[in-house]
Amino acid sequence: AKNSGKNQYQVYNEQTGNTELRKMELQKDMQWAIEAGQFYVVYQPKWNVQTNSLVGFEALLRWNHPRLGVVSPGEFIPIAEETGLIVSLTKWTLNEACRQCKKWKSRGCVNPISVNISIRLFQTDTLINFVKDVLEKTVLDPHLLELEITESMVFLDIDDIIRQLHAIRSLGVKVSMDDFGTGYSSIGLLDRIPIDSLKLDRLFTNDLETSSKRAIINAILLMASDLNLDVIAEGVESQEQIESLTQLGCNIMQGYYYSKPMKVEEIDPWIKSRVL
Ligand code: C2E
Ligand code: CA
Ligand code: CA
Ligand code: CA
């Protein structure tokens, strides 16, 4: 390789240097990026295999950085969490997703929209007010909004989170537990945390040939059914996966098999291609 003349230490340093610089650039530019209109939302469909119909969309954030191009949320969300910008970013995303959902509703499409909510939002105790404000401003039926939260919140003051979730659900807004099964297991909290559904992480929904994975999914599905929770399988990429999951009793799918997250204008053509 071209770098073979340099020793490992130098190469390593160069790489971390670049990563640090990139992070600093993102951190600095993010402050203006909302106002500059550089963020946009893409939508990934959720599909019910049993009824063969669309049952909702997940809103996923993208940042079109002027110099670096499209930056993924896996990279900029942690930075936004560190700087605190996650609060205004979430506000913006919620508003954008609800506005879009309202638009679809007025055209007769009654599928709910899910928005990812970082646990940081529960620490400031302002989430409930955001949600109320956005629903009022966009005049969206609260039942059409769902918040996706992650298991990692079990580290925070759980009683306080439960209180906030109850308040949010009392508005009619739904709550889903994202990436279920990957975190520090909140299974023990499932009967206390007020949620409506679970999203099975991609790690669980691939390689379903291994019997241990099937056993785990089976157990999760049984438990979810007892607790009256819907289960959504994430990261579904193949027909075989869909067959295994439906055999096990999971009927709601999300993944590249159906569609990658789409820009608004790509959705109509996609829907037309599905019903043909
Ligand atoms: P997530 O909530 O688990 O979202 C699912 C991720 O899996 C998305 O990545 C989606 O594009 C990807 N995905 C969907 N189907 C497939 C598939 O079949 N195969 C594979 N390999 N991947 C699939 P994305 O959009 O890059 O988002 C990454 C993470 O960033 C999200 O994971 C979520 O935790 C976070 N995120 C995205 N948007 C927001 C946001 O508005 N707010 C917050 N707080 N976090 C967000
Ligand atoms: Ca999610
Ligand atoms: Ca997930
Ligand atoms: Ca994830």
Short structural summary:
The protein is an alpha/beta fold. The chain has helices spanning 8-33, 73-83, 86-106, 120-123, 127-138, 158-170, 202-205, 211-226, 239-248, 264-275; strands spanning 39-48, 53-65, 69-71, 113-116, 145-150, 174-180, 197-200, 230-233, 252-253. This is EAL domain-containing protein.
Question: Hetero groups bound?
Answer: ligand C2E, calcium ion
The SSE string, one letter per element, is HEEEHHEHHEHEEHHEHEH
Q: Structural class, judged by helices and strands?
A: alpha/beta
Total helices: the number is 10
- Measured between the Cα atoms of the first and last residue, the distance is 51 Å
Count of DSSP E strands?
9
- Overall radius of gyration: 20 Å
Taken as a percent bin, the fraction of beta residues is 15-25%
Approximate helicity band? 40-55%
Shape: globular
Report on the biggest sheet.
Answer: 8 strands, mixed, barrel
> How confident is the prediction overall: mean pLDDT?
90
Strand order, biggest sheet?
1-2-4-5-6-7-8-9
Name the poorly predicted regions. 1-8
